[in-house]
Amino acid sequence: MGCVGPHPAVADVRRAVREALAGVEKGALVLAACSGGADSVALSAALAFVASRMGLRAGALTVDHGLQPGSAERAATVAEAARGMGLDPVEVLTVTVGTAGGPEAAARDARYAALTEAADRLTATAVLLGHTRDDQAETVLLGLARGSGPRSLSGMAASSGRYLRPFLGLSRATTVAACRALGLSPWDDPHNDDPRFTRVRVRRHVLPVLEKELGPGVAEALARTAGMAREDADALDGWADSAYRNCALSDIEGSVRLSVGELERLPNAVRRRVLRRAAIAAGAPPGALSAAHVLAVDRLVTRWHGQKAVDLPGGLSAVRRYDTLILAISPIP
């Protein structure tokens, strides 16, 4: 009898990880971020299998957010399971979750800060994240609901610095099937069923309704839309980077001055990206800067009739002085 290959789902997750790591140099350390859920457990198992065959070192990080009773014990169990897969080093990262931006955003910020610190300390080349095609679809729907433009509709990038997301082309069902085939027992986080969280409501109610009313394949279509939107957004961002250099009269911490004449020559999509970049450069927190803020600043360029300054997050204001647009900490001298 011939050799029987791995279960199709196992083959899929391994292939996805192998392709994501194709450009990583031999001997480099790659870490899997493992929460203990099916997606990240399948990711960790696939990394453990693939890394040795690619000449890579493989480890894992698990974050204890401290938000549930027994979270420390749960994190220790996840870490032990990762060691059992042959991953090394394995660390538990304990974080304190703040309140800025709501519970989901605060937990995410604390988690990424801890992952980044650990990756720097361990000199890891890459950190793998277990986001799937279903997560991507949820992200697109959340961006659509916010009405914050094509960048938010582009969802999560497959590669962002050292962070890699190998599973964006795979369904959540695939990772569950892979765990089952490998005899792994992932943990079901109660927060994944907590309707207080917007993403949970999208997952449990919005996507199922769309699938029922529009037919199967909605998640795939949304993820495909994210890919196309990302290509468009990347191209416009590149144009805006060049335009910003042409428009900026000065760019120092706490104050940016832009030429109104140069701004007026730009298409709306590019000009508004320049204005968003200018606001952030002046000190506006990116997460608090909304499309409404940017549109209000844009009107100082396109519909100028002597209006007063526009208030922006971070204690900034935007004001037009003749042919110069100034974004600076209030009050603007």
Automatic annotation (TrEMBL):
Residues 258-325 form the tRNA(Ile)-lysidine synthase substrate-binding domain. Pfam families: ATP_bind_3, TilS. It is found in: Cytoplasm. The keyword Protease does not apply. The keyword Calcium does not apply. GO terms for molecular function: ATP binding; tRNA(Ile)-lysidine synthase activity. It catalyses: cytidine(34) in tRNA(Ile2) + L-lysine + ATP = lysidine(34) in tRNA(Ile2) + AMP + diphosphate + H(+). One of its GO terms (cellular component) is cytoplasm. Residues 30-204 form the tRNA(Ile)-lysidine/2-thiocytidine synthase N-terminal domain. Its main location: cytoplasm. Its EC number is 6.3.4.19. Gene3D superfamilies: 3.30.465.60, HUPs. InterPro entries: Rossmann-like_a/b/a_fold, TilS/TtcA_N, tRNA_Ile_lys_synt, tRNA_Ile_lys_synt_N, tRNA_Ile_lys_synt_subst-bd. It comes from the Bacteria. Belongs to the tRNA(Ile)-lysidine synthase family. Ligates lysine onto the cytidine present at position 34 of the AUA codon-specific tRNA(Ile) that contains the anticodon CAU, in an ATP-dependent manner. Cytidine is converted to lysidine, thus changing the amino acid specificity of the tRNA from methionine to isoleucine. This is tRNA(Ile)-lysidine synthase.
